[in-house]
Structures are given as structure tokens and as C-alpha cells.
From TrEMBL:
Gene Ontology MF term list: hydrolase activity, acting on carbon-nitrogen (but not peptide) bonds, in linear amides
Protein name: Putative LmbE-like protein
GO process terms (BP): glycoside metabolic process
Lineage: Bacteria, Bacillati, Actinomycetota, Actinomycetes, Pseudonocardiales
Keywords associated with the record: Zinc
Length: 244
């Protein structure tokens, strides 16, 4: 183990199933999908759970149309990195509330998928380098951390038992992508191009932001190179790893 506090450690590899829980379509693609592509390429199972359909994310498109477009784009994007299972919870984009309803929905998904690793997006108040995080990310991230415990307690959300969802206590880690407190990383030198393509599949969203495919590529490469320097490789994706 390095004594350098800026040095990132390798992510654990002794697991088979992961569940990524995020607020919106595109959340995993801004930094985490390179690691997802590597993991699925190694034969691991990864599923996506999205709290919303991203219906409030394109200013020039009605929420009804945006929900359909962004759902389709997310499914296509996930397929690029080897993820076949993509589920949506239909919480309202932009105003996701932390609370029992959200915790229950996520706990149910954890019981269904029975992951050893749960991946979330930064749930802290700021991004690496500064800049305020948004409420949806914070609320979904915190609810997921709590739902990991809820999923293992049969006396919390007892109605899930009636749905045939037995408790699952097998989550060993939560990995937080884009965290300002990153500790671990994954080498994505071989999967960076798939990560870029997965972000490019969010075509309508990128157009709505006024971004080109080249803009998206530069954004991902800048962060991957920065993480790679801390990890001792060319390109990496970093995570804050919470061991349970």
C-alpha cells in the first residue's frame, strides 16, 4: 500500500454481481461507464437502476417527450458497456425526495438483484474541485446507502416479503463515482473508447446542453487522465470505496 495520500488503490475484484443506482440517464456515463465496461468484459453481471427517466433534463423538449427519448438513449448507452438490465423507478426528475418511498424502491431492487457491489454517483454536497452537487444526486445516493441496510433487515419494509423478496445482506461495498473523497480506481485504458461511445449515445441530451461529441470526449479524457496519474496508469476511473 502506498504512503502517498493522493495515490488510488485498486478496486476489489472478488465479486460477481453489481447494481448501479443513479438519479438520471447519463449519470453513469459521466465517469463510471469505463469501469462498468471492464467489469462486464471480465464476465461480471452489472444492472442499472435509475430513479427517474430524466424528463426534466432537456430545456427545449417537453418532459413527456424527454422521458421517452432519454429512456431509449440510456438503454442504448448501457448496452455499449455490456449492461442488459436497465430499470426505471419513475420518481420525478429534478425534485426527487429522500424518504421511505425511495428507500423502499431501492431496497427492493437490491433484494431482486442481490449484488455484492453497489455503485452510486457522488452524494456529497460538492464535486471534486468544487461546484455544488444537485439534490437528486445527493438524495438518491444517500437513500441507496440507507437501502443497503434496509435490504438486509426483514423487519424493514415487511411488505417486500409478501412480494417474494427475501432479505439480502450480501452487499460488501458501495463504490461512489465522481466523489471528492476517492480512494480506489479501475484501469480503463482498454475500455475508454466504449465509455466515450456510451456517453455519445445520449445524443438528445448532449444537444440540449449545447455539447458536441468532441466536447464529451475531451471531458471524459481529462478526468480519466487525472485519475490515471493518481493510479499509475494512462486512464482510470476513480471511486470512493465504502466497505460494509
Amino acid at each position: 500500500m502506498s504512503d502517498d495520500p493522493a495515490r488510488l488503490l485498486p478496486m476489489p475484484e472478488d465479486w460477481r454481481r453489481a447494481l448501479a443506482v443513479v438519479a438520471h440517464p447519463d449519470d453513469m456515463e459521466y465517469g463510471g461507464s469505463g469501469a462498468i465496461a471492464r467489469w462486464t468484459g471480465e464476465g461480471r453481471e452489472v444492472a442499472y437502476l435509475l430513479a427517474t427517466r430524466g424528463e426534466a433534463g432537456i430545456d427545449g423538449m417537453s418532459p413527456e417527450e424527454a422521458a421517452t427519448v432519454r429512456e431509449r438513449e440510456q438503454i442504448e448507452s448501457a448496452a455499449v458497456v455490456g449492461v442488459e438490465t436497465v430499470e426505471f423507478l419513475d420518481h420525478p426528475d429534478g425534485v426527487v425526495e429522500y424518504g421511505l418511498a425511495l428507500r423502499r424502491d431501492i431496497a427492493a431492487a437490491i433484494r431482486r438483484h442481490r449484488p455484492e457491489l453497489v455503485v452510486i454517483i457522488n452524494h456529497r454536497e460538492t464535486w471534486p474541485g468544487g461546484g455544488l452537487n444537485m439534490a437528486d444526486h445527493r438524495h438518491v445516493g444517500q437513500a441507496t446507502l440507507d437501502a443497503v441496510r434496509d435490504a438486509g433487515n426483514r423487519w424493514v419494509f415487511r411488505d417486500l416479503l409478501d412480494e417474494g423478496l427475501d432479505p439480502w445482506q450480501g452487499v460488501r461495498w458501495v463504490a461512489v463515482a465522481a466523489s471528492p473523497l476517492s480512494t480506489h480506481a479501475v484501469d480503463i485504458g482498454d475500455t475508454f473508447e466504449r465509455a466515450v461511445e456510451s456517453l455519445h449515445r445520449h445524443r438528445a441530451y448532449l444537444r440540449g446542453l449545447g455539447q458536441t461529441e468532441d466536447d464529451a470526449r475531451r471531458f471524459l479524457r481529462e478526468f480519466a487522465e487525472t485519475s490515471g496519474r493518481r493510479f499509475g496508469v494512462a486512464l482510470a476511473t476513480e471511486f470512493e470505496l465504502i466497505a460494509l
